[in-house]
Design brief:
The chain is mostly beta strands and about 130 residues long. It has one helix at about 30; strands at about 5, 10-15, 20-25, 35-40, 50-55, 60-65, 70-75, 80-85, 95-105, 115, 120-125. The protein has one helix and eleven strands, in the order βββαββββββββ. It is globular, with a radius of gyration of 14 Å.
Length: about 130
């Protein structure tokens, strides 16, 4: 069973930066490398919104239009960890951010494509 734990959330002023981490446990490093990893976010009363993903096969990345050029997803397979570097943060980026994983698959932005989820970490951006 894959267990995901996010960290790095917090409060920041608009224009600032945060780096989120998601550590995966319950699997080896070689197995982790076969998981596509992603980030979603959710605000109260709304569904999960796709933020970014990094493919297991070639490390290629894909971002939502709202975060493209400001956020960067990366992974360290030796550490079983995926990161989300968030720059030029805006108040509308305020949300709970969730890490997600799926094995040997190139998922789309739908939450139904993803198998495992973390508990989330709060990001608050003030103006």
């Amino acid at each position: 069973q894959v267990h995901l734990v996010e960290s790095g959330g917090g409060s920041v002023q608009a224009g600032g930066s945060l780096r989120l981490s998601c550590a995966a446990s319950g699997l080896t490093s070689s197995t982790f490398s076969r998981y596509t990893m992603g980030w979603f976010r959710r605000t109260p009363g709304k569904e999960h919104d796709f933020v970014a993903r990094i493919l297991w096969s070639d490390g290629s990345t894909y971002y939502s239009d709202t975060v493209k050029s400001r956020f960067t997803i990366s992974r360290d397979d030796a550490e079983n960890t995926v990161y989300l570097q968030m720059n030029s943060l805006k108040p509308e980026d305020t949300a709970v951010y969730y890490c997600a994983a799926v094995y040997l698959y190139a998922p789309g932005p739908s939450t139904y494509d993803w198998s495992y989820w973390g508990q989330g970490t709060q990001v608050t951006v003030s103006s």
